[in-house]
Every structure is written in structure tokens, then in C-alpha cells.
Amino acid sequence: MAKSVTLKNISKAFMNDRGEKSYAVSGVNLEIGEGEFVTLLGPSGCGKTTTLRMIAGFEDITEGHIYFGNEAVDQIPPNRRDCTMVFQSYALFPHLNVFDNIAYGLKIKKMGKSEMISKIESVLDIMNLQDYRDRMPNQLSGGQQQRVALARALVMEPGVLLFDEPLSNLDAKLRLVMRDEIRRIQQQIGITAVYVTHDQSEAMSMSDKVIVMNKGKIEQVGTPMEIYQRPKSKFVADFIGTANFLEGTVKGTEDGRLLVETASGVLRIRRDGFKAGDRVTVVIRPEAVTLAKGTSHQGIVQKSVFMGQTQEYEVLFEGQMFQITEHNPIQEKVYSVGSSVSLQFAEDALHVI
Amino acid sequence: MSAMFKRFKREPLLPILIVLVMLCLLVFIVYPLFQIAKSSFVGSTGEVGLQGYQRVLSGGGLFHALVNSLVLAVLTATLSTVIAYVFAYTFAYVKVPFKKLFNGIAILPVISPPFVIALSAMLLLGKQGLITKNLLGLENANIYGLHGLVLVQTLSFFPIAFLTLSGLLRSISPSLEEASQNMGASRLKTFISVTLPLSVPGIANAFLLVFVQSLADFGNPMTIGGNYSTVAREIYLQAVGSYNLQAGAALAMVLLTVTIIVYILQNFWVGKKSYVTVTGKPTGQRRMIESGAIKHGLFTFCMIMSFVVIAFYALVPIGSFIKLWGINNSLTLDHYKYVFSIGQKAIKDTLTLAIVATPIAGLLGMIIAFLIVRKRFFGKRALEVISMLSIAVPGTVIGIGYILAFNKAPLALTGTGIIIVAAFVVRSMPVGIRSGVAALQQIDPSIEEAATNLGASGSKVFTSVVLPLIKSAFFSGLVNSFVKSMTAMSAVIFLISAKYNLITASILAQVEAGRIGVASAYCTILILIMIVALILLNLLVRWMGGKERSA
Ligand SMILES: Nc1ncnc2c1ncn2[C@@H]1O[C@H](COP(=O)(O)OP(=O)(O)O)[C@@H](O)[C@H]1O
Ligand SMILES: [Mg+2]
Fold first, then answer.
1. Which of A35, A54, B410, B416 has the most CB atoms around it within 10 Å of its CB?
2. Tens digit of pLDDT for each residue in B461-519?
3. Which of UniProt's keywords are assigned here (chain B) (predicted)?
4. Whether A79 and B453 lie within 8 Å, measured CB to CB
5. Chain A: residue whose CA lies nearest to B8
6. How far is the CA of A216 from the centre of ligand 1 (A)?
7. Interface pTM (ipTM) of the complex?
8. B453 touches chain A (CB under 8 A)
9. Cβ separation of B551 and A138 shorter than 8 Å?
10. Where are the domains of chain A?
11. pTM higher than 0.90 for the full model?
12. Which of A10, A12, A14 for mutating ligand 1's site (highest number of atoms within 8 Å of CB)?
């Protein structure tokens, strides 16, 4: 049975070398619905793993409470929490074969033999592992080990499934395959999943909800689209994809659009919550800009790289470097390094913070 | 405080285990050492003072013993290190046959009883010696004394230095030497300017290892020391012979201080100086020296040394069948008849006590290693220090400490089997801890977390995951404990009683009585028992391994 997970004001302090408290996670509030796939996303060291390990019970909670459903689990030891984890290093038992690795948790539960075998058989089927059931972990490829680790966690039918950067040890191609597979299985079973990664494309492609973390705190919670299109902070905008920033001042509103005065004129952006006089930052994604022939005081192309589907530019504009992506480049309309260009913004794709 | 309470609720067994382990270490290591320290300041009539240390340092017999021991240790360590370096260099750099043989020789001293080489030295080089009397026709040759000790200790201990040095030389990246040659240096120049400097930490380490072994050695000085008294022997005589416990304790304190200083040097100073990062796999393939004078010279040297060592070991079984070595060389089984009648009890006692001590030492070693590597708790640092300290404590110091600590209430254990088992365990456990720690550090901690995550309790994680994964370290710990216990002497010689006698003590008694044949028979039987035990243990490992299908 999938369970919801609630984190109430969770903090975690470690003692540093000088014996002082330093917070790895502070004041995290989070609600994860039943059957939801939620990703903790953020740069290395921002407290994702620590948060996940508190949910699993491997780290004591300094402050706050964790609930599975309505039940507080803070005091429940890790071996009795209704969650299983897929580890970054897979953590397969090297002395047990695939079958016994998967059977490990069921044996501890003292499950009856026939029930156990049928559960393992079905998970072997789901994970396409039937051919490898008698292999030892060191006789498996990285992708197969990954599958066994997932099978071992799944077979327990936990309330919550936890992942700590499970794909980071795989090569790029396999990572894409496993990404889809994990998402597919999660949907099929309908289990609650908390997934830690620092890879934004992984987070975007798999999750119902992305939680962006920075320095132990939550920066923003939202669907992948919300996070990308309406970031709440420069940090989120910059961390998710690429972003250009333009400083400006709100002049007023017109037809429900904000009029923002910037160095490149007045931009009309769909957004509320600001009033005239506010200093704001306009977030401009690389694909929200189109280039046209211009004069040298507007913008100068510093870098121009053909990538196949896109042409990537770096343009010096208003004293800063803009990243710009043009789709479906054609020979005649490509600007070379040194060209003078003017920038046109797709106003519907702009965002103000 | 509340965090500690939470942890206690989660793993109630762990604190109990920690307290038990700590208690064992405190009672059987710290308390005896404390008793030595205390006794070294207290005279026979109860007055407190420095008389004990005065006697040690005032230039009398005890001071001579101290100087003697240091001289012997320096000589033995130097000689052993040089020989070991040649062996190790040959092993790592030269293409020669019989490398297996050299390796086998390096293992011999680890499993051999402490007397074997000393006994054969008597048989070869003594008054009735095969070489001295029969070959050279010398009358009254004398093997007893410093020269005999240096010979015997070097043959006994150079393999220890060899193991250290060959590990180091193999881990020097060949590309460094290739770079040197590539820049125009000759082989000799490369050796002097690259290989040798890189091996300095290893050489220092090997030297210190042998130095401490020689200093703590009890068996050899007792057998062929002659008038050359040494510290370990003097401690025994003070404690058991003349009943001057204060002087004995003071001398033990001095010995302990020296060994601990050396141990610290070895671990902190030499350890820091090591340039070679040991990755566990040799880096690149070294091009071996395949011909030339160097190869022939080194090979000849190693072969001769190997032959000498083998000859020394082979002589003891031969000697055990000779009626009266050098005087009546007819074959006889008398010595064995004697051993099996009079010595039966010693054999039975030694086996029984060793069999009791082996699993205790093995399990305790693994548990301590596990606590050190994986758990965080109050007093962990102390646990680490005490258990590592026990590596540095010489056997004779443990022996006198046990006499002082356990001959009165509340811990009146003198004369019991418990005290001997405790000595066996304390003496053999450190090696187990070391190999356990090394094995555990190789295991990704998340493997244990995975087990916990799947529902296993603390003890279940230990038995179902940790123990199988450190199985080979565990079994080598068992083998080591058994071998060490069977051949132990320096500590337990203080503790034997009418109720419990030991083979090693019996051998010593026979040597002192001049019955070399009987001593040789004992030695031979001891070696045979150990070979059988090693085979049995190996079979056991194989049998368990078959069930687990180790990866
Ligand atoms: N056991 C620990 N002791 C001390 N500090 C720790 C410990 N575990 C994590 N930290 C610190 O907490 C912070 C967050 O770590 P972590 O949760 O592993 O980050 P992430 O998984 O997001 O990369 C880091 O600064 C890290 O150094
Ligand atoms: Mg992490």
C-alpha cells in the first residue's frame, strides 16, 4: 500500500571538526502524496541524501517529525520502517546470488516459502531478470545490478520507495533507458517514490513533483513545468536549464501584463504579484530569444556553435553574456562570430522574479 | 543525551556489547598494565619509592640486560632488514625460479614454535654440533651468547621484514623507474636515486618491526642466551625466580615504554613518510631483470639463505630420532615414548586451552574491528587505543602483569585455565582486529544499510552480511589465534601451574635439562599438530565457502 510522506519542519545538524553544530538540512516542510513520484533536486552537498536518509531512518532527526500516512515514524528504527531504498552503489550483497539478494528481506519477514517464491518470480519477470537469477552480483553488468537493486526493494512492497542517485554509475545511454523503466514500474505499481538526483533532466523527465534544494533548504516545490517556466528564484532558474537575467523596474500593468522597463526597452510579461516601482529580474530562457541583423551597439556574437538540431550562440549584450538557442538553423540565417545582432524576446515565454 | 537514548532504544544489544567488550579489555589489558605501573613503585614491605627504577638504571645486572637487549635488537634488526631487502628486491625485480619457495620460507616463522631455530642452532653449531664438531673438528664450540642470539633471531625474524618490504617494493610504480632510465640514468643510478629512496619508509618499518620482535623475544634468550642476559628473560627471573616483583615491574615498564615508542614511531612517523600510495593493485608491469651478474648473484644469495632456513627447520625432526646428538647417533623412538607418557598432559592441556581460546579471540577480534570501523559511540577512541596498544605489549609484560593482577581477590585467577585462555586471547587478538579492520574498510557501508533497510536487526546484519563478507579475514584470524596460542610462551610461562602445563613450557624445561632430543620431539609433535589443524581449518573454510558460493 502506497503511503503518503510528510516532513514537518525537519532539521539535521552534524558536529563539524571543531565540535560546532552545522546544519545539513534546516526547516524542511514537505508533503508527498500517495503514489506520487517526487524528486529532490539540487547541487552536490545541499542535503538531499541527508533528507532521504532521515526518511529511511539512517540518520536521527535533530528537529521536526516525519510521518508515513498519519503515523509518526521518528522513533521507529530503520529496519522497521515501511520503506525500502535503492542505493547509489546498489549495495547488493556480494555473497548472495540474485535470487537470494531479492529474497533477503522476505526471509527476514519470515514469509512462507511458496508465497516468497511467487513474489520473487513476479518481480524477476517485471525486471527482466529471469536469466540472471543464479548469478552472483559481480557477474552482472552495471545495468543488471541496478535492476537487482530495484527488484530487491520492490519485492518488499513497501509504502515508500527511496532512491539515492541510482543512475549516477551508469553510462549515458543506459541512464536514459533505466530512467524510463523506473518511471514505468513506479506508475504500474502506483507506489510512492522519493528520488534524489543532481541531474535536472532526470528530475524533469521522471517526476510528478520536483523539490529544488539549496544549502539545506527547499527553494521551490512544483511540477517540472512550473519549476522550469516559473522559477521562484535566480538559483532555481539558473539550476534548472540555462537562464539569462535582465534587471528591470516595474512601470505598471496593462491588459493583465506587467510592463517592465529594462536596458533593452519595455517588456510586457504575463505575471502578477508586483506593483509599480518594484525592482525585478527578468528570466529569459535561451530559446525565448531570436536574433536579427542589428547594429554593433545592440549585441555582438562571441561564439556560434552548430549542434545539429540547434545553433548555440553566446552574445555580448548590455555588458553580459547571453546564451541563445535557435532551433532548426539554416545556413543563410546563421550569424558568425563578430556579427552585430539585435535580440528579440518572445514575451510570452518570459518570467519575472 | 536524548539522541543517545534514541539510539539505545533502536539497538539495545549494541550498548551491552560495547560495555562487555570494554570490560574485557579493561580487566585483561588495562588493569594488569596498571598493576605493573603501581608495583614498580611499591617495595616488598609496602614502601613507595623509586628503588625499582634505581635498580634498573643504576648500572647493575638489570641495566646490563637492558643494554644487551638494545644491542641485540639493533644487530638483529639491521641484519634482518638487509637480508630481507635483498630477498624482496629479488622477488620484485628479478626473474628467478622458485619464487614459491621464497614465499613459503617467509611464512615459516609465523607458524613455527619459538624454539625451532634455537634448537637446531644447538644441533648444528653447539658443542656436539654437526658443523662445529663433525665438520670443523672444533672442541668446545660455544653457540651460547650474543653471536648465537643474533644468528637465531635473524633467521627467525628476517621473513617478517621480507613480508613488509616485498609489499612495498611491489607497490612502487615501475613507471617511476622507467622515467629515470628514460632520462638517461643507468640501472644502478636508478636504484640509488629512485628505488632506494622510495623504499626508505618500508626499510624503517621493517627495521622497527624486527627491533621490537627481538626486544620482546623470550624463547631464544632462554634457550641459547647463555650468560648474555636480556630484558625479557630478566623480567621472568625477577618475577618468578627471585621474587623481586618491584624490580621486575620496573623493568617491564621500561620495556613497555620502549616498545610503545617504537610502535608510535612506526605508525605515525614512518606512516606519514610513506610516499607510495598503496592502491592494492600493482601499477603496470615491471620489466624484470632476466640475466647478468646481478641476477646470478641475487639468486645464489637467496638460494643459500633458503637452504639454511630449511636446514634449520629440518634438523629438529631429525634430532628427535637421535639418541644423544653428537655422542650416540643411533636412531631411537625413546624421546617420543617419553613425550607421550610424561608429556601427554602438556599436549592435552595446550590443545584444550588453545581450542577454547581460538574462537573467543577470533570472534572478539571481528566484533572489535566492526565496532571500530562501523559504529559511533562514547569511548570508541579508547577502545581503538587499547586494542591497538595490545599489539605493542610484549608477552613478558603481559605475563608479569597477570601475576600481579590476578593472584588475589577479587580476581584470583592464578592457576586456573581462565587466565591462560585470557593470555592466549589477548596475545592473538590484535592481528585479528587488524585484518578485520582492513577487510571491513573494503566493504561499502551501504551494503549493511541495505540489510537494515530490508528489515534486518543489528545482530542479524552482523551475522547475515558482515560476517560472511569478512569470512576470510575471520578464518585467517582463527588460524592465527590457534597457531599463536599453541606456540605461545612469553606470557603464559608466568602462568602455568600444576593443573595446567603447556608444550612450550615443557620444551623449555627439557632444553634447560639438556635433553635436546626430547625437546626436539616435543617441537616436532607441536609442528605436526599445527599442520593437521591448519589442514582441518582450511577444509572447514572450503566447506563453508562451498555453501555460500563466495564471489
Ligand atoms: N555524517 C556526516 N557528518 C558530518 N557532515 C555530514 C555528514 N553527512 C553529510 N554531511 C554534510 O551535510 C551536507 C549535506 O550532505 P548530503 O546530504 O550528502 O548532500 P547531497 O546528497 O545533497 O550531495 C554536506 O555539507 C555534508 O558535508
Ligand atoms: Mg548525495
1. A54
2. 988 999 888 888 888 888 889 988 998 888 898 888 878 889 999 999 998 888 889 99
3. Membrane, Transmembrane, Transmembrane helix, Transport
4. yes
5. A77
6. 9
7. 0.85
8. yes
9. yes
10. 5-237, 245-352
11. no
12. A14
Give the integer Cα–Cα distance in Å for B204 and B223: 29
Strands ordered across the beta sheet of A209-214 = A83-86, A160-164, A192-197, A37-41, A209-214, A217-222
Which string of DSSP letters, residue by residue, matches B47-113? -BSSHHHHHHHTTSHHHHHHHHHHHHHHHHHHHHHHHHHHHHHHHHHB--S-HHHHHHHHHHHHHS-
The grid coordinates listed for B63 are: 641495566
Alpha carbon B349 to chain centroid distance? Answer: 22
Contact A85 B549 (CB under 8 A): no
Closest residue (by CA) to atom 2 of ligand 1? A14
Atom of ligand 1 nearest to the CA of A16: 4
DSSP B396: H
Which amino acid residue places its CA nearest to atom 5 of ligand 1? A14
User: How close A157 gets to chain B, by Cα (Å)?
Assistant: 11
Query: B453–A85: do the CB atoms touch at under 8 Å?
Result: yes
Q: Look up residue A105 and give its three cell numbers.
A: 528481506
> What average pLDDT does this structure show over B60-81?
93
Q: What angle do CA A36, A40, A45 make, to 5 degrees?
A: 165
Q: Is the CB of A11 under 6 A from ligand 1?
A: no
Distance CA A244, CA B37 (A): 73
The answer, for B284 touching chain A at a CB cutoff of 8 Å, is no
Q: Which of A137, A240, A143 is nearest to A182 (CA)?
A: A143
The shortest CB-CB distance from B551 to any of A60, A79, A95 is to A95
**Second CATH level (architecture) for the domain A5-237:** 3-Layer(aba) Sandwich (3.40)
Nearest to A36 by CA among A158, A201, A191: A191
Whole-number pLDDT of residue A272: 83
Contact status, residue B519 vs residue B343, Cβ threshold 8 Å: no
Which alpha helices (H) appear in chain A, and where do they start and end?
48-56, 98-108, 113-126, 142-154, 172-189, 200-206, 224-229, 234-239
> Rounded to whole angstroms, how far apart are CA atoms A148 and A145?
5
Note the pLDDT of residue B200. 87
Confidence of residue A81 (pLDDT cuts 50, 70, 90): very high
Render pLDDT for A102-114 as a digit per residue (tens, 0 to 9). 999 999 999 999 9
Is any ligand 1 atom within 6 A of the Cβ of residue A252?
Answer: no
Confidence band (pLDDT; 50, 70, 90) for B5?
A: low
Once rounded to an integer, what is the mean pLDDT over residues B116-120? 88
Q: Which residues surround ligand 2, an ion (CB under 5 A)?
A: A 49
Dump strand ranges (E) for B189-342. Answer: 322-324, 328-331
Question: What is the residue whose three cell numbers read 541563445?
Answer: A324
d(CA B74, nearest CA chain A) in Å: 41
Query: Does residue B450 sit at the A interface (CB-CB below 8 Å)?
Result: yes
Question: What is the set of domains in chain B, with CATH numbers?
Answer: 50-275+284-327 (1.10.3720.10)
Q: What is the largest CA-CA distance in chain A?
A: 79
Of residues A145, A155, A133, A152, the one with CA closest to residue A89: A145
Atom from ligand 1 closest to the CA of residue A15: 4
* Mutation probe of ligand 1 site: the residue of A50, A58, A89, A163 with most atoms within 8 A of C-beta: A50
- B344-369 pLDDT, tens per residue? 899 999 999 999 999 999 999 999 99
